[in-house]
Design a protein that fits this description.
Length: 97
């Protein structure tokens, strides 16, 4: 079959979306070959954390990851980095002075 470009991060050998079970099954051999110790779920966690750190609105991140409730997204992933906390407190300090 011919490759079908769909700009997917994880694609089958012909460019179509991978079935979730096939992706999970192929992750273990791939990570061993690359010498990684990362669980597949760690990729999701990293992506969500990066999206939030990049300033993507939480309701958009919720849609991307498929949470039914934004509270789940915020409870699990929305831990502001120390730099973000410093920026926020700096803004507060500026506003109060």
């Amino acid at each position: 079959m011919e490759w079908k470009e769909r700009e997917l991060v994880f694609a089958s050998r012909i460019g179509t979306p991978l079935e979730p079970d096939n992706l999970r099954r192929s992750w273990h051999p791939l990570r061993e070959r690359l010498g990684l110790h990362t669980r597949f779920h760690d990729l999701r966690y990293s992506a969500v954390t990066l999206l939030l750190d990049l300033g993507v609105p939480p309701h958009i991140v919720r849609q991307i990851v498929g949470h039914s409730d934004i509270g789940v997204t915020m409870k699990i992933y929305a831990h502001a980095s120390l730099d973000e906390q410093r920026k926020a407190l700096g803004k507060l300090g500026e506003a109060l002075s």
